[in-house]
Design a protein that fits this description.
There is one protein chain. By secondary structure, this protein is of the alpha/beta class. About 40% of the residues lie in helices and about 25% in strands. The chain has 14 helices and 23 strands. The strands form 6 sheets. Strands 15-16-17-14-13-19-20 form a 7-stranded mixed β-sheet, with helices on both faces. Strand 4 and strand 5 form a beta hairpin. Helix 1 crosses helix 7, helix 2 packs antiparallel against helix 5 and helix 4 packs parallel to helix 5. The longest helix has 21 residues. The structure holds NADP nicotinamide-adenine-dinucleotide phosphate. NADP nicotinamide-adenine-dinucleotide phosphate binds next to helix 7 and helix 8.
Length: about 475
């Protein structure tokens, strides 16, 4: 069985230790991934710091050219890398292909943003002074990414950090390291300076601690659970380490009776079932105005029953496996808890046959507010649908969560769109749109969904220092 290497200071390295990589569609170990210890990580930070000394002086245009070359290499290998994503993550191949295309677009967006690290000239109060606001790169950045979008979520950290003039060490999720290896190969193929980009895999808590403690590591950008985000915040307090946090979500979907029902069902299906429900912006709670509740539920259930579940590599598949057995156990717990609280199970509700970590696409209706799935992230293809009567009730339900990552609204009334965009407590609001992510707009949460933004011009800003330069000309 092949053991894949980490990428340290321009070298592909295999240490004595490795972890298994599992295909969630059949629960089989199909590869092993090298792991490193904190000595390697400390050395990687030192090498990244050395590389920073040169990279920070490459012009924005020059840095952008490197990113374009990486994008071209990723594009060239898109089919092969999409298959790697489907094998280790489980998602349907068309969605993996979409993820590669999204990552290429992120690289190209930040390749162009690299030229735009603008400062400003500020009018002086004293005649003999001149004031400049300048932007300089932070230094060495540690990027910690999750398994659910193993390529796109890593690239939306690495690309802006490199564009800003920083150097980066990526620590991907242990469950999906091979996608990160493939990305590192794309970087390596363009022959970057040693230490510009490095890949480490290993015990997350120890690696995270080294990132927190090492003074040469200037920022940690993390995407993952709110629980781990909280641990990083605690650890960061000691060294006042800057953090960017993209954490959990619990998106509400509000469907009003003035919506285009076909469009609402189609987009709610995307928001719920994309990536088998394992998306931070997945629809977790679907609230439908009582007047159209039966019609919405009927159409949603019919379409859910038509979803084809199977291996991500089967081109017909729309619902792949969940990432692991723990995820299946949580799905079962959420369904049983909702049903015991009075919810009706209209379809699905069971684990799939076979060895993989499959769970059927499921619809629950009339789910109690207190059910687990109404406030904990389900991260599975389970759609709880429940009715509401008035707009103010819908807003109260939507905002009644500790999370605030995304929210969805279906309505045709323009005034309502603006009212809800103002008051919904979420970093991203999809209006008649179940898939609001795009490279050129900021992605981030409010409340316990995180700090800061990725993508958009905000995405590169996160890796720049702001300095005031005051010049006296007296
Ligand atoms: P997770 O358990 O928090 O893991 C995310 C990453 O953090 C992995 O690389 C993991 O490494 C690492 N990690 C675990 N413990 C750590 C520690 N003590 N210190 C430093 N790093 C540590 O999350 P997950 O289950 O992989 O991902 C699902 C979660 O991510 C969900 O809550 C989802 O909503 C959230 N998410 C948020 C966004 C967003 O943009 N807001 C996007 C996608 C996902 P190991 O794999 O080696 O344990």
């Amino acid at each position: 069985m092949k053991t894949y290497p980490v990428y340290l200071n321009g070298n592909w390295t295999i240490t004595g230790d490795s972890i298994p990589v599992v295909n969630p569609a059949d629960a089989e170990v199909f590869a092993r991934m090298t792991v490193v210890d904190t000595v390697h990580v400390a050395q990687a930070i030192k090498d990244a710091h050395t590389a920073f000394g040169g990279w920070r002086h490459v012009t924005g245009k020059g840095r952008g050219e490197w990113l374009h070359k990486i994008a071209t290499e990723l594009e060239r290998r898109r089919e092969e890398i999409a298959r790697i994503i489907s094998v280790e993550n489980g998602k349907p191949l068309t969605q993996s292909q979409g993820e590669v295309a999204l990552a290429v677009d992120h690289l190209r967006w930040f390749a162009e943003e690299a030229r735009r690290g603008y400062g400003r000239v500020v009018p002086q109060q004293a005649e003999e002074k001149r004031h400049l606001v300048v932007k300089t790169p932070l230094g060495v950045v540690a990027a910690i990414s999750p398994w659910n979008f193993p390529l796109a979520l890593a690239v939306r950290k690495v690309a802006p950090a490199l564009a800003a003039g920083c150097t980066v060490i990526l620590k991907p999720a242990s469950q999906t390291p091979l996608t990160a290896v493939a990305f590192a190969e794309c970087v390596d193929a363009v022959k970057p300076p040693n230490g510009l980009f490095q890949l480490v895999v290993g015990l997350a808590a120890e690696i995270g601690q080294e990132f927190l403690n090492n003074p040469l590591c200037r920022k940690i950008t993390f995407t993952g659970s709110t629980e781990v985000g909280r641990k990083l915040i605690e650890g960061a307090a000691r060294h006042i380490k800057p953090l960017a946090l993209e954490l959990g979500g619990h998106a509400p979907v509000l469907v009003f009776d003035d919506c285009d029902l076909d469009q609402a069902v189609k987009h709610a299906m995307i928001a719920k079932f994309r990536n088998t429900g394992q998306s931070c912006i997945a629809a977790n709670r679907i609230y439908v105005q009582r007047t159209i509740y039966p019609d919405f539920v009927r159409a949603f259930v019919n379409q859910t029953k038509d979803l084809k579940m199977g291996s991500g590599l089967d081109p017909e598949t729309q619902i792949g496996p969940l990432i692991d057995e723990t995820a299946v156990a949580r799905a079962i717990e959420h369904v049983q808890d909702a049903v015991s609280g009075g919810a009706k199970l209209l379809c699905g509700g069971n684990r799939g046959n076979g060895l993989g970590f499959f769970f059927e696409p499921t619809v629950l209706t009339d789910v109690a507010r207190t059910a687990l799935c109404m406030f904990e992230e389900t991260f599975a293809p389970i759609a709880p649908i429940t009715p509401f009567d008035t707009e103010s009730e819908a807003i109260e339900l939507a905002n009644g969560s500790n999370y605030g990552l995304s929210a969805y609204v279906f309505t045709q009334e323009l005034k309502r769109m603006f009212r809800l965009a103002d008051v919904l407590e979420a970093g991203m609001i999809g209006i008649n749109d179940g898939l609001p992510t795009t490279s050129q707009c900021p992605f981030g949460g409010v409340k316990q969904s995180g700090w800061g933004h990725e993508l958009g011009s905000e995405g590169m800003e996160a890796f720049l220092e702001t300095k005031h330069v005051s010049i006296s000309i007296d």
